[in-house]
Write a structure and sequence with these properties.
Strand order of the largest sheet: 11-10-9-5-2-1-15-14
Number of helices: 17
Structural class: alpha/beta
Bound molecules: 1-O-alpha-D-glucopyranosyl-D-fructose
Distance between the termini: 16 Å
Largest sheet: 8 strands, parallel
Helix content: 10-25%
Oligomer: single chain
Shape: globular
Length: 600
């Protein structure tokens, strides 16, 4: 264990980021849609949670085909959410509370209603002709290549007026910008500076690793898009140029959303020496349950699958790179339904997953509602699918894969993005306290029981509710340099199995096949002539079944339990609670269903 340089930690490393989906967070003006004033009224809630930064989904003018990820004016706020003055006021108020604000810039594409695209399609000669990716049809009139959109449709749409196809990696209403055009790159830098001048502390950059396409736009022929339109040849230089043009006297953070990113690209984009991104949002840990055809085909997964992906990425993005850590967002289902146990062990599994994720090395990004254990929406009918990606997936399964509507809804309902876009559940009162009007999407029927107000009981203990536990977890993370800066040593799934002599017969903690996810965080710092080493052990049983775990490493080190999620405290050893005894080698730890502990 090498002595680690105790660096001054940048704010975007030290602080958790709270991810807000504005449309569903809090409605202040009674139109059933969340807005900026609603967010401002709730900033103190975010402050109490312990997040010192927020990332807000896009609130710019948009036709809302993809809920704001189709921008028609980057320099104005959509009236759905309020005014430009409201956003400036929100930023000021957040700063007053010591909260930094990251805006969500959708730079890979605009809306087809953006003036640039409208000008580019109203005939030749417009200076905006080359702002997008236009190509002539193939000789037989087909699209220029075989690229598919991420939304289960072709990636090209023919525009009659121009007699050409234009590229859109998402919906036809989201034409891709042509970043090869220096004018486009200049425009995007100007937009970033418009918001930096209004106090933004940085940006989440939507699908930023897709802005460069390989010259010639070669067909994939079934191969991966890596190097073609994901992590294309100019992504790094374009990001570097964008950052070099940003004018600010503050330490800002650029968080790149980078689907399908490779480890080498992730290291390259976040290497401080490249002055490109500070953080990348990874995806592999949220794809262990994807089948061969991807998101819309479920695959059984194991704790080993999950722990393996995490250990791999922790290794790939070890210092000097820096990872992000997140459990869900507006594109993913609710984590307690996806990886947890939302019926029988909802509190336990929500807190166990949060512990083994947010105590890894990297910046936690907490998505609104996960901190109170919000779960998936009970989707039964395709009529309840409002999200364009999920709707397209359903139609594709019925029309192309020839599934019955019931089979298709069964495939889509667990992963649909609508699951994480239901209104934030503030109380058990009308519409979950989200709005006085009927919300744009119905609240999850469980809001009567699962809501902020019912969980604001933290004076009792961290184990009183998911919310109380999250507050304690984020506070714990900030209180140990080993958790902020330490390395990551995977232990999980441990060589689980019968300890020497095995548990006593009839023991209800049989050795299980690796449902325990555990790791160490270690940091050595020089204190005068002596070296001070801190070791944190994080362990959780990610299953509904009790587990016995031969913790193989820190025997005899003793230590103090500093966090646990069962109200009666850690019971890793039946006969006593002295950690020293609990650490004795060969004494298997017993972890109850979804039980997690942190030992320092
Ligand atoms: O998402 C990028 C992306 O690839 C998503 O489609 C996501 O990975 C997918 O839903 C997983 O199957 C960003 C935004 O977060 C998303 O909301 C937008 O729809 C998308 O870009 C287009 O802007």
């Amino acid at each position: 264990m090498l002595p680690w340089p105790m660096e001054h930690l940048s704010w975007w490393k030290e602080s958790a980021i709270y991810h807000i989906y504005p449309r569903s967070f809090a409605d202040s003006d009674g139109d059933g849609i969340g807005d900026l004033k609603g967010i401002m009224d709730r900033l103190s809630y975010i402050q109490r949670l312990g997040a010192k930064a927020i990332w807000m989904g896009p609130v710019f003018r948009s036709p809302q085909v993809d809920n704001g990820y189709d921008v028609s004016d980057y320099r104005d706020v959509d009236p759905l959410f309020g005014t430009l003055a409201d956003l400036e006021h929100l930023i000021e108020e957040a700063h007053r509370l010591g909260i930094r604000v990251l805006l969500d810039l959708v730079f890979n594409h605009t809306s087809d209603q953006h003036p640039w695209f409208r000008a580019a399609t109203e005939g030749s000669g417009s200076r905006y002709n080359d702002y997008y990716v236009w190509r002539d049809p193939a000789p037989d009139g087909a699209p220029p290549n075989d690229w598919r959109s991420f939304f289960s449709i072709p990636a090209w749409t023919f525009h009659e007026t121009r007699g050409q196809y234009y590229l859109h990696l998402f919906t036809p209403e989201q034409p891709d910008l042509n970043w090869e055009n220096p004018e486009v790159r200049r425009e995007m830098a100007d937009i970033a500076n418009f918001w930096l001048a209004r106090g933004a502390d940085g940006f989440r950059l939507d699908v930023i690793n897709m802005i460069s396409k390989k010259p010639g736009l070669p067909s994939l022929g079934g191969a991966s898009p890596s190097g073609i339109y994901v992590d294309g040849p100019q992504v790094l230089p374009y990001i570097q140029e964008l950052r070099s043009r940003m004018v600010t006297n503050r330490e800002i953070a650029l968080v790149g959303e980078t689907p399908r990113i490779t480890p080498s690209a992730a290291r390259s984009y976040t290497d401080p020496r490249n002055a490109a991104l500070n953080i990348v949002l990874l995806f592999d840990h949220l794809e262990v349950d994807h089948g061969p055809s991807g998101r819309w085909e479920h695959r059984a997964w194991t704790t080993g699958d999950l722990a393996g992906v995490i250990a791999t990425w922790q290794q790939h993005l070890a210092a000097p790179s820096w990872p992000s850590i997140y459990l869900s967002n507006h594109d993913q289902p609710r984590i307690v339904s996806r990886y947890g146990s939302d019926l029988d062990y909802r509190y336990q599994s929500a807190t166990a997953l949060a512990t083994v994720f947010y105590l890894q090395r990297g910046t936690p990004v907490v998505y609104q509602g996960e901190e109170i254990g919000m779960c998936n929406f009970p989707l039964e009918s395709p009529d309840q699918i409002m999200d364009v990606e999920s709707k397209n997936a359903y139609l594709d399964l019925v029309e192309s894969a020839k599934l019955t509507p019931q089979e298709a809804i069964e495939r889509v309902r667990h992963e649909a993005r609508d699951n994480s876009r239901t209104p934030m559940q503030w109380s058990g009162r009308h519409n979950a306290g989200f709005s006085d009007a009927s919300p744009w999407y119905p609240p999850n029927p469980d809001y009567h029981e699962w809501n902020v107000e019912a969980q604001e009981i933290c004076h009792e203990a961290a184990t009183s509710s998911v919310l109380c536990y999250y507050r304690a977890l984020l506070a714990l993370r900030r209180s140990y340099d080993a958790l902020l800066q330490g390395d990551y040593v995977p232990l999980a799934p441990a060589c689980v199995g019968a300890s020497p002599g095995g548990p006593p017969p009839g023991d209800d903690f049989p050795p299980t096949g690796g449902t325990v996810f555990a790791f160490l965080r270690r940091l050595s710092s020089q204190a005068g002539t002596s070296q001070l080493s801190t070791v944190c052990l994080v362990a959780a049983n990610l299953s509904d079944v009790p587990a016995s775990w031969n913790q193989p490493t820190v025997a005899g080190l003793g230590g103090t339990f500093v966090l646990w999620n069962y109200p009666d405290g850690p019971r890793v050893r039946p006969q006593d609670q002295s950690p020293a005894r609990a650490m004795a080698k060969g004494n298997p730890w017993r972890l109850r269903p979804w039980e997690c502990v942190v030992l320092v």
